[in-house]
Structure formats: structure tokens, C-alpha cells
UniProtKB/TrEMBL annotation:
Organism per entry: Falsiroseomonas oleicola
Domain of life: Bacteria
Protein known as: Nucleoside 2-deoxyribosyltransferase
Amino acid sequence: MKVYLAGPDVFLPDAAAMGAAKKRLCARYGLEGVFPADPHPDEVIDGALWYAIYRRNEAHMRGCDALVANLTPFRGPSADPGTVYELGFMRALGRKVMGYTNDAVDFTDRTLGLMAAPARRNAAGRWVDDAGMALENHGLADNLMIEGGIRAAGGLLVRRQVPPDARWSDLTGFEACLKALAG
């Protein structure tokens, strides 16, 4: 089974090493990991690099049977938007999707903690931001569409709280996803 390894790991200073580590774990479970930065045999860079990267990643996903997404909050309270797109893309293709986060704090609490202006409760008792817009509050790891898509696909979302210095290197949740896929 080929598994697309979605996540902001491509932005790490040691992205290639992380990709290799994840691929080794995949192999341990009889799976083939495909890292977004891996070359694709049909890849052609003819124009903007960003668009070539998009086309490569989409081609990788189309060639995979499943996706494991690193949903650890990235540059804000939520998962990397590119990773979320990839998860939704694979869900729409009917593929198995799994995810893990190394920040187990609820999405609402993370959002409240990062807001520039204090949140308040509206007349209905819902948390709202300084523009009066409601905050999602379902006790989930991230936006309900992310966790809902994983559940609807029969997948697994692993929530773990790891020390800050291991936020991008701890692969325990990733490995739990692989075990479930190989199961």
C-alpha cells in the first residue's frame, strides 16, 4: 500500500531526513511512504515552480492508496492549510485518511490563546472574537471538517501532547497511524 505523507514537514530545516525517517517507519509496516518532495516520474517544470510542486503533489496523491497527515498546528492554531487540502483531496478520491497531532490541546483553547484581542461570550453563550464571529467549540483537535473527514473515511486521528522541543520530531502518533493502516 502506498501512503502519501502529508504535512508541513517539507518546511523543516531537515525535511529530507524527516521524509526518510517516515519512509523507514512505513517500510517497517509493509507500506511504501511517498513524501511530497519526492520526485515524480511525470514531473515537468514548465513555468512557475509553485505550480509544478502542486502538480507533483497531486500526481503523488493520485498514485497513493492512503494518506497520513501531520495535523500539528502550523503557524497558528490550526493545521497547515496545504495539508488540510491534501487530506480533503484524498478523502474525495475515496482513499483512507489518517492524521496525528503533537498538540493535544483543543482547537478552541488554542484559538483563544492566540487571539490578539480577548474573546467574549455572546448572548447565546458562544465564544466570539472581536468581530463578533463565533469560534468553533466542539472539543476537537481542529476544525470539525478535518476530524469529520477522517472519521467518515474510517480513519484514525491520534492526539498527543509532546514537549515543545519534540513537536516536529516525535513520530509516535505517525507510527500509530501506520499500525492502523497495516492492521
